[in-house]
Amino acid sequence: MGLPALEFSDSFLDSPDFRERLKCHEIELDRTNKFIKELIKDGNMLISALKNLSAAVQKFSQSLQDFQFECIGDAETDDEINIAQSFKEFSQLLNTVEEERRRLIQNADDVLITPLEKFRKEQIGAAKEGKKKFDKETEKYYTVLEKHLSLSSRKKESLLQEADTQINKERQIFYDASLEYVFKIQEVQERKKFEFVEPLLAFLQGLFTFYHEGYELAHEFDPYKQQLQFNLQNTRNNFESTRQEVENLMRRISSCSLEQFICTNDHLFSVKGPLGCTWSRHYCTYEKGTKMFTMSNSEFKSGGKQVLNMFKLKSCIRRRTDSIDKRFCFDIEVVERHGIITLQALSESNRRLWMEAMDGKEPVRATTQIGGVNSKVQRLMTSVFAPADMDLDPDTWDNKTITSGLKNYLRCLAEPLMTYRLHKDFIMAVKSDDQNYRVCAVHALVHKLPEKNKEMLDILIKHLHVVSTHSQKNLMTVSNLGVIFGPTLMRSQEETVAAMMNIKFQNIVVEILIENYDKVINKAICLSSGSRKSRGLYPPTLCLADADSECLQKQTLVPLLECQPNPFSPSGDTFSSSPSSTPMGSMESLSSHSSEQNSCSKTGSPSRTKHKASGSLCWTTPSPSSNGPKSPACTTSPDSSSKEDANKTDGEWEEALSTSPGDRKAKALFSCQAEHSHELSFPQGAHFSNVYPSVEPGWLQATYEGKTGLIPENYVAFF
Fold first, then answer.
1. pLDDT single digits (tens) 336-347
2. Of the N and C termini of the chain, which has fewer Cβ atoms inside 10 Å?
């Protein structure tokens, strides 16, 4: 039951029942007062705990802010950059949350504690003061009343009248105190319904606002969270693709002999001739301290001169028997000339001594992580390189076998499809922070590949691009394809941990090729700054092909294998082929030996001019519907250049750039509007002075109208 009402008329009667009802109100008032005191105490503890929590979160946030990721290698992938930046993003998010919490804490005193203290002091305190006054006047009134009633009737009339006046006055004071007390105590009971509850509501409202802000922040954070999950999965995939290679390298290093040789002297055979089929004997020496390798001909005729060649060694790699039709071979790379020198030792132990003296490396071995059964893959490769036409039985040759055969073929080439010569250039290109520059640089490098390599790369990347468009079904996203084909199409000539750490960048090169197939393989592209773009989410499961998937279909991959040379030698379980069909012995091969001749034999061809995509970065204006970054505006297409400049060979361009700085002048074939401060804007026919090569591929440094900046190389003709 609730408290009984106190009637003002009962104040005059002052009955025991009135006193009992008044006592009920006083008990409730004391209980309310104690409750508010405890609530204020608990509120202060809560605020203190919130302050401590906020301080701890801020310290945690600062720790995240101060931590710096250090990755192996001289550059980081976009995924690694985003992961390294994630701690700062987390710190910023926590700081934003704590800003709202600090606002809650600062308002808590004004919203909760102060109003409760005020209610307790002003309202409950006033009621208690009213009780004290009421009790005092009660005692005084009844004391005076007792004295008044004890007066003798024999007193003088004037004294009795004075006593009556005094008692009436005391009675009135008592009644007033009683009425005020009754009014106040009931007022407090009514006031606590809102003045007590309102501060609690305001505090909870602030608390809910804080939680709501956290919800909103979580909602805004969700896209970044999903992107970060993608970056983490991508980095995990790269790690898994690199880990096995590094472990194998570690085992090989741990088993290497510690024997060191100061110098080595012996006879070696080296390959020569356009088809790589003639071997000649040389007497060779190697000085380990200076890394100088000397070759002198041992087969000179009587009266002939001895030819002495000295080279500084860059690297030495053992030649696998399945990559050349000779035993005891190894390759050396020297500083003085491009390409590889293949040497044959007199025996396996002799080769081992040379390899140890030159700090030789083991070649990268091909491994198939996902794919068909090895025996089926070997039978497929035997069928592909057999003289007779192969018959594709769908019950025999499943997708996994075909894709594994393709990967096995590409992995076992004497030189990777994208060549040793351009390997470091590709890696450096994708280490740039500028997304658009990466595409442009990869574009330029692709067109520096030997023609046969580029043709095969075109066929493969075109198909992988199609495969990636069906990633919702076959799970082969661009990222997954990069992880699979990055180590297949590219590999470092040196087998070191640092080289293994660059596998993730090999994957990025392949991702760029697939994502930008139309631009990189077939079209000219512009060089302009571009921001990083987010990648979509993808299922993390890796699956090269399913029985029902559309990826890597037989009708595309088997002809691709049939039209290429056999990289396998007769040794072991690999596949036999004639020496002329191997990459080392054929002009149609994909090795560096053929690439040198391919590139040199086409010097005067229009396909090698600067207006084609083979030697530099070219500009075209994108269509209005293009979603890509805006390229410099050109009033004339580069394809409409003069025949004189279009037929200029690489040698002529180099000759034009080899004059003294003061003599190098050029004329603009087309007009162009610069998009950056370091570029020059110029009209068609503009004359440039002090023209010389720039560090940017496809660009020149020149002076026009007193200003020096970059101009596109394929926009000018020298005079």
1. 765 678 888 888
2. N
